[in-house]
Amino acid sequence: MNMPVTEILLKWYDIHKRDLPWRKSREPYYIWVSEIILQQTRVLQGMDYYNRFIETFPDIFSLAGAPVEKVLKVWEGLGYYSRARNMHETAQKVVEIFGGKFPHQYDELLKLKGIGPYTAAAIASIAYQQPVPLVDGNVYRVFSRLFGIDIPSDTAKGKKKMIHIATTLLPAGRPGDFNQAVMEFGALQCVPGKPDCSRCPLRKMCLAKKQDRVEELPVKDKETKIITRYIHYLVWISNGEIILKQRKEKDIWYKLYDFPEIPDKKGIEPRKLFRGFLGKHGISYDQHAKMFISEPVLHQLTHRHIIARFYHVYNKKWHFDMDEGNFRVPMDHMKNYAFPRLITAYMEKFPERFQSDNE
DNA sequence: GATTCGTGGCT
DNA sequence: TAGCCAAGAAT
After folding, report:
1. Number of other residues whose CB lies within 10 A of the CB of residue A251
2. Parallel, antiparallel, or unpaired for β A304-314 and A290-293?
3. What is the mean pLDDT of residues A239-245?
4. Is the Cβ–Cβ distance between A129 and A135 less than 8 Å?
5. What is the reported pLDDT for A319?
6. Most buried pick, A16, A70, A263, A327, via CB within 10 A?
7. CA–CA separation, A256 and A345 (whole Å)
8. How far apart are CA A17 and CA A100, in angstroms?
9. A109-131: per-residue pLDDT in tens?
10. What domains sit in chain A, N to C, each tagged with a CATH number?
11. Spatial separation of the C-alpha atoms in residues A313 and A285, rounded to whole Å
12. CA–CA separation, A37 vs A48, rounded Å?
């Protein structure tokens, strides 16, 4: 008996699919939220965020009506914050233009901020049962192995080829289930590295398996070069208040909050940098005021190595000009602001450095 | 087409 | 352990 690939995957999915919160309904809003959260993010990592997001913003109207800062606070720690900013913008647009209903068509969905080819196809097929194929990392891995395709996944040629394959396999009856089936299969069975092919329902027809190339596929050609960046944070705590700053456009962590920065001067010693900065503002690096410089904190991103230091100053009057965007808040209001993980991790590690009575 | 944009788990 | 890379999109 020679069951086609599509049937095998659907059957496998019906048995093995995980019970995930966004699979309990086909409400487009839930599908949309889950798909955005899951971009470049593992299910386990996104689960709590999804539940909290839906709890905080039960429908598209509550999301559209919220300030973007509140959306970012819910997103805090999840990364790729443009996803949250774009969701907020798209929610407002969908409310204004479409009365709160997402369009059904792939092409219309694609016009919305934060919705690209993958997500448009996911919403159209899962929420609206439209026969639209999709390709994500899982789909690419599954089909590249199954059909022995070694075109690099990070090329237009590879993506085009994969969409073509997905199109030929897509069943008219259950497009949304099929798309999810391939992704689920990639996440649970045809995993990166060394999958357990002995219990794979496709092992007999898998070309990579036949050619013993399972671990080689899929192929990717570009290597991301990592750049090191230095950040010097000024943590100024005085009179129960701390100085914060909202991050600006065209840089990492846009619209999140952190601390004022001392501009980096390559190669200069931290102590010298601090002294120079304070001196420029008429403050001496002296024994009377309590100041100290943290050890370097390494924060690793996919494309950056950030080395941060925290320059602490306590109980000294803030008497140089507030740069644009700097503002003071009581220490116990900090919990209302969204910070990058680098900051929250540091604060969790050294809570004593963030106490207002630190004299 | 090449870069940028986070975080965390796994090997 | 240091890299790999995950339900990608925007610029």
Report:
1. 7
2. antiparallel
3. 93
4. no
5. 63
6. A70
7. 15
8. 30
9. 999 999 999 999 999 999 999 99
10. 2-216 (1.10.340.30), 227-358 (3.90.79.10)
11. 10
12. 10
Residue A290 in this model has a pLDDT that exceeds 90: no
Listed as own residue / partner, the contacts of A250-257 with beta carbons closer than 8 Å and 24 or more positions apart are: A252/A301, A252/A304, A252/A340, A253/A81, A253/A340, A254/A81, A254/A82, A254/A85, A255/A68, A255/A69, A255/A72, A255/A81, A255/A85, A256/A72, A256/A76, A256/A81, A256/A338, A256/A339, A256/A340, A257/A337, A257/A338, A257/A339
Smallest Cα–Cα separation from A145: which of A215, A200, A194?
A215
Catalytic residue among A7, A35, A55, A215: A35
Residues composing chain A: 359
Q: In angstroms, how far is C9 C1' from A319 CA? A: 43
Token pair listed for A305: 């190595």
What is residue A357's predicted lDDT score, i.e. its pLDDT?
Answer: 62
pLDDT at A353: 96
Query: What tens digit of pLDDT does each residue of A185-195 get?
Result: 999 999 999 99
pLDDT, mean of residues A295-311: 96
**Spacing of A219 CA from C5 C1' in Å:** 13
Residue nearest to nucleotide B7 (CA to C1'): A79
Task: Give me the residues near strand B, CB below 7 A.
Answer: A 40-42, 44-45, 77-82, 156, 193, 222, 224, 227, 250-254, 299-304, 340-342, 345
Residue in A273, A272, A241 with CA at minimum distance from that of residue A259: A241
Q: Is A96 a catalytic residue?
A: no
pLDDT, average across residues A226-250: 94
Residues 93-132 of A with CB under 7 A from strand C: 112-120, 122
- DSSP states along A149-207: --S-TTSHHHHHHHHHHHHHH--SS-HHHHHHHHHHHHHHTS-SSS--GGG-TTTTT-H
Q: What angle do CA A350, A355, A359 make, to 5 degrees?
A: 110
Confidence category of residue A231, pLDDT binned at 50, 70, 90? very high
DSSP three-state, residue A255: coil
Token pair for A359: 């004299």
Question: Phi and psi at residue A329, in whole multiples of 5°?
Answer: -135, 150
Give pTM, 2 decimals.
0.96
